[in-house]
Amino acid sequence: MKAPASGTEKNVFYPEIPEKRLSNGLRVLVVRDDRFPRLSVKLVLSVGRVCNPDDNLALVSLAVELIKSGTRTRSACDISDLMDQWAIQYASEVLMEHGCISMTFLEDHLEPALELLSDIVRNPSFPERELEKLTVRWKSHLIAQRSQPNFLATERAFKTLYPAHPYSKVSMTPEDLERATAESVLNTYRCHCVPANAYFLFAGPIDLEEATGLAERFLGAWEGQEAPSIDYPQPAQIARRLVCLVHRPHSVQSQILLGSRTLPKAHPDAIALKVANQVLGGSASARLFLNLREQKGYTYGAYSGLKSYRHDGLFLAEASVKTEVTLESIEEMLKELEHMRKQLPEEEELSRSKSELIGSFIRQMESPASVAALEVNRRLYQLPEGFYRNFIPTVRGVKKEMVREMARRFFDPERVVVTVVADRARVENELQNLGELRVYDLHGNRI
User: Fold this and answer.
1) Residue 381 phi, psi (nearest 5)
2) Domains identified in the chain and CATH numbers
3) pLDDT tens per residue, range 5-19
4) DSSP designation for 68
5) Which of 283, 274, 276, 279 is nearest to 302 (CA)?
6) Does the CA dihedral 22-27-32-36 come out positive or negative?
């Protein structure tokens, strides 16, 4: 019995999302949805890991995490009790170029939730005792993190592709935590977490007028000067293949990560590059997976992905393989890069890759809160106003020749950083045949 032919996705409705700006610079956005008596609010701050000073990569994350740990009139326990009382779901996050604080609650709890958020944002006290407790917890996490091969590979790739650059600030160290003081965390917060660089999103049964009034009432008195700008030097391009080996004693597998620099998020060719990456390694139906897992049996999975920022971007292809096939696996991955550059994709794999990207995009629009997150992403990265309204037609319009052109520009196997996390004694000799070899310990020190 023949399977039915797949349909073609119609373009999705992407709503108009109004904005008003308060006198202190805070931008208020609303995605209205009256179906449920539940609201989500998100305060998006233009402060990310790039804002950390070079001598302490923990300060921004500490500042965003600790603002809920006490204010001038409330202790951490008081805040926690109120969140339980009003059934507030609270979360915070710091990414490369921005951070956010979010709350979800019932419509009836809107005003008390906003009052609590206002107190947290405007009056954080950063208690020394809470900093000490957080430092102990995070140190344990960092020790565990440094034992993970995928983290070690990612850290080394970023530091190699972005030497002495804000994008190299992947993670803090235990020493950063030890150097942090309540005063340094407070100063970081006051310097970077300011209303002029922030967005305040409402998603749920509320209109712009009401949301603006509430924002003015609870956050209109929030003060802060324009945050200092970040200097983004232009990193040198990789002139020839470079191999970075992170020595992980007694490791029984090899973590492989191929990386190269690509395009910033708002570049006109970014969607064509997304399609090219999807063909190469964006899913279990893509070339890397079919080669290294299905044909060779070297790994449980091999994928590639893109990380895009305001000023640049990365292509990363990864696989965790048996140590004895480390060299063969890298060679197969390099071959797939070369095939992408030489051959046009098959019609079937191009169509499937487009459908996968479109399906992923549609899933991101399942709730008002997720639509609001897309819109803030668009504004933060200065994407065109119609970017998401035109996303599906733009993906559908990517041609085979465009995919090959993206591969020729960004998937060059001779100008890629190959990072391997493995036991040095088992792989070093064979890796020397791939290109210039640099060896590091688990803490990033050159051996």
Assistant:
1) -100, 10
2) 19-219 (3.30.830.10), 242-440 (3.30.830.10)
3) 555 556 788 888 989
4) G
5) 283
6) negative
